[in-house]
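Team,

Forwarding the record for the chain on the shared tracking sheet. I've put the sequence and predicted structure together so nobody has to dig through attachments.
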Amino acid sequence: MLHIILLILKILGGILLGILALLLVLMLIVFFVPFRYRLSGQFYGRPEADVSLRWLFGALRVQASLRGRAFSGRASFLWLKLFDTEKETGEVPAEENPSEMDSPEMTFREPDMEDFSLEEPDSPVGGADAEAPEVFQRMAPEPAALPEKTVILKDAEKRAEIPKPKKEKKDFGGKISQKIDRAREFFEKLRHKKDMAERLWNASCTQNSIDFGKRALFSILKHIRPNRISGNILFGMDRPSDTGRILGGVCALYPLWSDTLKITPDFERQIFEGELRMKGTVRIYIFVYWALRGLLNKDLRKLIKYMKHIKNKEETLWQ
């Protein structure tokens, strides 16, 4: 019996170890297998751009394109299509015009001229003793009953003056003092917030967190920068001096593309056209690495704690 239990435990342990090894392999694949991206664009009167992203030897594919204002994109994983924004063109059925629909309920008869004949009726209406038709008798309002006695107001009663409420004297001095007090409170709050912001900025945890953020940002940008840039760009500004300034700033980044990218300045006219292509790789581990370092950074956690207390108007940490 004991031998059977040990055998079952051994099998379960092997299965559990295999599952853990499989999860570890998947995690390593996700973290270290690179995403390969490719960007290409051109501008000759209207913008055109193409973006493609591939991962795991093409198992995951994401593509997007821009033609003027028309955008399309699609993504697929293995044989599964995740999304596709391209719409199939087809004939759109013509909408039916409700005014042209033949319906027995919507038939109209043309007016006949006999309906508008000017012949006088047999029994003239207009005499004082003439009897009105029954329809008009029903619609005629009944005469309002006049009061038996009319009340004539006297001139004295008409001219009686109604006592007007006395106007309260406005206290301008009190209002001015209230406005001054509100303005003083407002400026006191601004000054207090300014002092709190200065203390927070000059704190050691804030400066250390800024240095940490700079290191993380430069490291990520260095990792995701394109491995190859190529193309041909022609540009020019209204003033030749502006063209020279832009050319000087662009030349400072010359080591990034070496001789693969050609930039031609035009000092005589304003123009911008050309094409650009770049490609590179991105690995997920760089983001996970800096995220874990941020969670373990004491200065960053302390700064977040201080900001939460300031947001909740709790200043006990600063006393």
